[in-house]
Fold:
Amino acid sequence: MSNKAIYKNHTNITGETIDVSRRQKRYFELAKNIAYNSSYNRLRHGAVLVKGGSVINASCNKDNFSSFGTRFRGPDMGHGTHHAELGSIVGIARSVTSGSDVYVCRVNKQEQFRSSKPCKMCHDVLKHVGVKRVYYTTDNGNVKMYKL
Ligand SMILES: [Zn+2]
Structure:
């Protein structure tokens, strides 16, 4: 798939593995359900925006361009598509995204979580709008977290 390079363009940041609470597990279940709405067959991502214990928004990745995301990409990188993390924050007031957390997952056809570390574009966007922490699924079923 042509978008592979985009997804592989990660930051050097590696989150630390954490134990998820029951509440956080629910966020990932929600992200998973949302991910199944993705128009991509093999790269189904879901992201949930949470603040103060409340789910603010949720989105899957979509097969269209994001002008907002593209602004955060290098000039040589072309347009950014609508990644799940972008969808979770676009249209949400900065006062809300500031201090929030994002839970992002990828699911495969066997309904297993797979690595979903945010790409550089999403990392920069989330940081820009004041997101505090990113939680993401890994290939071995764990959850990693890092602070922006
Ligand atoms: Zn991304």
